[in-house]
């Protein structure tokens, strides 16, 4: 135990954490940026543990660590509280590990910091409010939990989001209490109070922007005590100034005169006199907001000089995000009407890492960038910062602080279009902050040359001098060809508005002209190629553009995929379902399903045969770092030729499935070329079909085109396969006249929605009516097709097929629409034996349901019916059936249940063996002529639940052997490989989602310990991949 007392870091396997103040360690550029940030912001921690994304070689801070001598000293506890407050303002980190010689305490950095009220504040008890857990080294049970939940493996694999053992800890983490969320709610509460006090919303915006800017300058050290004392005697801070109305306006005038620009102007009359009015009481409301936050509770008396928010630590891009959310909260109709939603910084970074990287040796800083719907300017701010970084690299500068060069980079390269005047002011404000952030704070108020440039070009502005040429307050879809500055861009990025309601006239006209669907985002996607005819484009759009089967949506896809070059596409639809308190939460509010497309109008010389498509199936994170999370199963390489077909279903199929699913559905579509709907349309003389009863219109009531059935079926009582007459209920309602042939028994009732998440078709052999469902009736009372369709719709195949092909399921809705059910293939050319067998089993099931119902017997018959559909009629292979089963059991279950899904649970005892049997069988078919056999080693099930990763070892031998079960603990084996990898390549296996690694004659297959990664279908897929790797010589020896 003494070793552990001396080094808890090694026990937690965090020895790769970086010292904040060490200059000697080998660190990456992204690690240097973070460590330098921590030093500059004086965040009082000793070590930072990073996760590294090997694709981009970017490192992300995951945990901060701090060493203390004891937890019994009041100054130490005070320091811990202050450090937690610093990290809360920093926002990027969830956990602070504070450790001494005898214990370690984990603090919650998503929790609002302690509000210090008195000099004798009880830190010992109060700190427990932000403490997640404390562990004594002397308690072996506590150490076991510590290692399981907070070790390096746990951090890298994000076990806290999925482990049942971590539920108590997860429940303590509420992301709605992070600095951005709390400051937004404080600003909203403040705004409402000020509005109730008589201030106009536009004026409140101005006061808030000025306050944010002044506090930012103060916290960065730009405004010393003597600066404020010149404005008001004895004043040492902005908060002292707010105690005096006259002094406040004296400061606001100085801000206006010194910094210029479009944002800080004061309202004046024709005589140039200030006409803004605010009271001391209103100023105190503003003061409270920025000192301790405003949660609608009375002001607490605080300890002298204590403040909650630190604008030196809060990231500047967060300020524009905070303000944009603030605007959305106080004016929700603006967001609803415009179709614009705020873009999370992690998504902006994600896009710009692709299109404007700085992690390598990029030095091109003259890149003209446009955001055609710039909102508060988050894309433009991050782009500007990256261009500055590139300039610094090109000129070997540690920090570019030359004001004139910074302005030049900004004015020559950063452009935005935004129709809403308030939003464009926030964009200008955000860019000003980014500009000022590069300057020496000591000179900000002293240097008279620091006049911020006018950026906004507003046609309403009469003063030509104040019309900028960067941020255009215009309708981006209108004709802007006469504006020279808005032509020939190198890069277009942004998050255009989307939706089909309250369309601007310009959008309606544009869509009509191009014969596109009337959808806000489509003109932006199209017009981007006019703004950048030879440039690159990365825009966010709503996913239904990919899947909607309407002709005008197909017209748009035809243009996009045939006339442009698509490089890659990300489908982030699943992120709309993330709970606000959860670790994978990306969007601050409910938005529709979104995707990102990377494309260009000009086709490159070498055209790839595939388009890279990323479609995450879960929002559950597999690490603790900020940002987006993509698993290896989420990445597909789609045939470009197929993607260019405007009616292709490949986008939806591979969203929830993979290429094997696409091939399976493609093969079935070749075999059965007609849908049920097409068959019914062709055989109208034999069948009647249509939707159920509907309420009559006013005109129909007048003309008495109505009827009133005595009984109707209660739709909630409808059962799969057959519905008993107890579902009938008396009715006194009036319905419009309808083709009553669709209700002639026997008929098939197809229910809208699902029954216990299964499709529901019911065979009705008695006279009845119903609402809210589809009916198919045959003129032949012995018609086999009604039974066939009933069995097919209720089958696992139908659930699989429709989940993967429905245009809306899993994107905008959680159910398949009625009209889509009839897109199932019409099964023809069924052999007589299979027909007879299906007919017998169906009749047996109906008899069972009608007689003394036996649930177990009924389910057994349903299983036999399902087997007939899969084996005797569709004639599917074992591989195909594994594909269907795993899609339903894992992918579809993951959509519905997410964090509680069986897909994320540790592997079952027999799973590794089943996986290994399929894998070696497939490999040995390939190796048969080589005289070699692939033999597998799996690991004892005793270690399955506790290990976040699973591993199988493949060895090539000249003899075929049985699968060997090793008693070695997986954890120990993984650590050996992890150490080997780290020493050779500085790679960390725990942060990787997938690894096939060769050491000598052994191939190690390493995946997360989740059932979805060790399924039968995954074994078939991995076998194909390994065969390809072997053919390409990937596993020819030591890596």
From TrEMBL:
InterPro entries for this protein: DNA_methylase_A-5 (IPR003356), DNA_methylase_N6_adenine_CS (IPR002052), N4_N6_ade-DNA_methylase (IPR050953), SAM-dependent_MTases_sf (IPR029063)
A GO biological-process term? DNA restriction-modification system
**EC annotation from Swiss-Prot or TrEMBL:** 2.1.1.72
Asked whether the keyword Methyltransferase is assigned, the reply is: yes
Signal sequence, start to end = none
Q: Answer yes or no on keyword Transferase.
A: yes
Molecular function terms, GO-annotated: DNA binding; N-methyltransferase activity; site-specific DNA-methyltransferase (adenine-specific) activity
Q: Which UniProt keywords apply?
A: Methyltransferase, Restriction system, Transferase
Superkingdom to which the source organism belongs: Bacteria
Which Gene3D superfamilies does the entry link to?
Vaccinia Virus protein VP39
Instruction: Tell me which SUPFAM superfamilies the record gives.
Output: S-adenosyl-L-methionine-dependent methyltransferases
Catalytic activity from the UniProt record = a 2'-deoxyadenosine in DNA + S-adenosyl-L-methionine = an N(6)-methyl-2'-deoxyadenosine in DNA + S-adenosyl-L-homocysteine + H(+)
Q: What class of enzyme is it?
A: transferase
In which family does this protein belong, per the annotation?
A: Belongs to the N(4)/N(6)-methyltransferase family.
What protein does this entry describe? site-specific DNA-methyltransferase (adenine-specific)
Source organism per entry reads Capnocytophaga canimorsus (strain 5)
- Lineage of this protein's species? Bacteria, Pseudomonadati, Bacteroidota, Flavobacteriia, Flavobacteriales
């Amino acid at each position: 135990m003494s070793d552990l007392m001396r080094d808890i870091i090694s026990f937690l396997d965090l020895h790769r954490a970086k010292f904040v103040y060490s200059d000697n360690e080998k660190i990456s550029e992204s690690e240097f940026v973070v460590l330098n940030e921590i030093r500059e912001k004086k965040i009082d921690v000793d070590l930072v543990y990073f996760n590294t994304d090997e694709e981009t070689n970017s490192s992300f801070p995951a945990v901060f660590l701090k060493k203390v001598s004891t937890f019994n000293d009041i100054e130490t506890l005070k320091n811990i509280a202050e450090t937690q407050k610093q990290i809360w303002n920093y926002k990027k980190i969830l956990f602070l590990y504070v450790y001494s010689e005898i214990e370690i305490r984990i603090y919650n950095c998503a929790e609002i910091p302690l509000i210090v009220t008195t000099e004798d504040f009880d830190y010992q008890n109060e700190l427990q409010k932000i403490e997640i857990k404390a562990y004594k080294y002397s308690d072996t049970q506590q150490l076991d939990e510590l290692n399981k939940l907070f070790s390096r493996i746990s951090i890298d694999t994000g076990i806290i989001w999925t482990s049942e053992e971590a539920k108590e800890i997860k429940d303590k983490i509420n992301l709605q209490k992070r600095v951005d969320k709390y400051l937004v709610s404080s600003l909203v509460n403040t705004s409402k109070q000020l509005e109730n006090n008589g201030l106009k919303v536009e004026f409140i915006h101005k006061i808030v922007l000025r306050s944010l800017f002044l506090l930012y300058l103060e916290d960065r050290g730009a405004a010393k005590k003597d600066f404020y004392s010149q404005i008001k005697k004895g004043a040492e801070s902005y908060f002292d100034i707010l105690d005096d109305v006259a002094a406040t306006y004296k400061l606001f005038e100085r801000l206006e005169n010194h910094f210029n620009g479009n944002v800080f102007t004061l309202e004046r009359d024709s005589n140039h006199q200030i006409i803004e009015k605010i009271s001391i009481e209103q100023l105190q409301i503003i003061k409270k907001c920025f000192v301790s936050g405003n949660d609608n509770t009375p002001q607490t008396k605080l300890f002298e000089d204590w403040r909650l928010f630190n604008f030196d630590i809060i990231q500047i891009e967060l300020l524009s995000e905070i303000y944009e959310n603030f605007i959305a909260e106080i004016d929700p109709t603006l967001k609803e009407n415009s179709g614009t939603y705020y873009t999370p910084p992690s998504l902006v970074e994600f896009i710009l890492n692709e299109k404007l990287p700085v992690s390598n040796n990029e030095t091109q800083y003259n890149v003209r960038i446009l955001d055609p719907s710039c909102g508060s300017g988050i894309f433009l701010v991050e782009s500007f910062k990256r261009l500055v970084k590139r300039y610094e690299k090109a000129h070997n500068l540690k920090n570019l602080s030359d004001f004139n060069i910074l302005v030049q980079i900004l004015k020559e390269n950063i452009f935005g279009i935004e129709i809403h005047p308030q939003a464009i002011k926030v964009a200008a404000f955000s860019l000003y902050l980014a500009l000022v952030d590069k300057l020496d704070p000591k000179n900000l108020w002293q240097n008279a040359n620091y006049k911020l440039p006018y950026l906004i070009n507003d046609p309403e502005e009469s003063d030509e001098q104040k019309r900028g040429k960067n941020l255009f307050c215009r309708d981006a879809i209108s004709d802007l060809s006469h504006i020279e500055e808005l032509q020939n861009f190198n890069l277009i990025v942004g998050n255009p508005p989307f939706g089909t309601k309250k369309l601007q006239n310009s959008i309606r006209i544009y869509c009509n002209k191009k014969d596109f669907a009337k959808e806000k985002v489509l003109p932006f996607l199209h017009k981007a190629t006019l703004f950048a005819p030879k440039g690159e484009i990365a825009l966010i759009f709503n996913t239904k553009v990919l899947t909607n089967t309407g002709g005008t949506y197909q017209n748009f896809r035809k243009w996009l995929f045939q006339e442009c070059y698509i490089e890659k596409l990300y489908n982030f639809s699943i992120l709309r379902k993330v709970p606000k308190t959860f670790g994978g939460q990306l969007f601050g509010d409910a938005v529709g399903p979104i995707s990102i497309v990377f494309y260009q109008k000009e086709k490159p010389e070498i055209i790839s045969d595939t388009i890279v498509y990323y479609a995450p199936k879960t929002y559950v994170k597999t690490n603790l770092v900020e940002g987006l999370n993509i698993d290896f199963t989420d990445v597909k390489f789609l045939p470009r030729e197929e993607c260019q077909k405007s009616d292709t279903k490949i986008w939806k199929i591979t969203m929830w499935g993979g290429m094997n699913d696409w091939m399976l559905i493609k093969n079935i579509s070749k075999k059965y070329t007609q849908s049920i709907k097409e068959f019914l349309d062709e055989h109208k003389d034999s069948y009647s079909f249509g939707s159920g009863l509907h309420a009559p219109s006013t005109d129909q009531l007048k003309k008495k085109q109505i009827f009133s059935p005595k009984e109707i079926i209660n739709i909630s009582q409808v059962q799969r396969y057959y519905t008993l007459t107890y579902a009938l209920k008396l009715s006194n309602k009036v319905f419009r006249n309808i083709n009553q042939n669709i209700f002639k028994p026997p008929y098939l009732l197809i229910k809208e929605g699902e029954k216990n998440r299964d499709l529901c078709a019911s065979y009705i052999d008695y006279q009845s009516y119903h609402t809210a469902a589809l009916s198919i009736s045959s003129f032949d009372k012995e018609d086999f097709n009604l039974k066939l369709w009933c069995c097919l719709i209720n089958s696992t195949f139908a659930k699989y097929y429709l989940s993967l092909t429905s245009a809306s399921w899993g994107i905008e809705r959680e159910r398949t629409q009625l009209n889509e059910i009839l897109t199932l293939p019409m099964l023809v050319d069924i052999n007589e034996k299979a027909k007879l067998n299906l007919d017998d089993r169906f009749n047996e099931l109906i008899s069972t349901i009608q007689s003394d119902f036996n649930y177990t017997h009924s389910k057994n018959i349903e299983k036999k019916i399902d087997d007939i559909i899969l084996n005797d009629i569709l004639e599917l292979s074992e591989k195909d059936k594994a594909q269907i089963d795993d899609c339903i059991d894992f992918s579809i279950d993951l959509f519905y249940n997410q964090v509680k899904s069986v897909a994320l649970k540790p592997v079952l005892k027999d799973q590794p063996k089943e996986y290994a049997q399929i894998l070696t069988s497939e490999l040995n078919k390939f190796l048969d002529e080589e005289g070699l056999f692939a033999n597998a080693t799996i690991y004892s099930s005793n270690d399955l639940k506790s290990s976040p990763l699973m591993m199988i070892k493949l060895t090539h031998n000249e003899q075929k052997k049985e699968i060997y079960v090793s008693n070695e603990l997986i954890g120990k084996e993984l650590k050996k490989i992890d150490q080997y990898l780290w020493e050779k390549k500085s790679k960390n296996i725990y942060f990787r989602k997938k690894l096939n690694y060769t050491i000598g004659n052994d191939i190690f297959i390493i995946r997360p310990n989740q059932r979805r990664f060790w399924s039968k279908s995954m074994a078939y897929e991995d076998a194909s991949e390994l065969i390809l790797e072997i053919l390409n010589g990937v596993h020819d020896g030591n890596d």
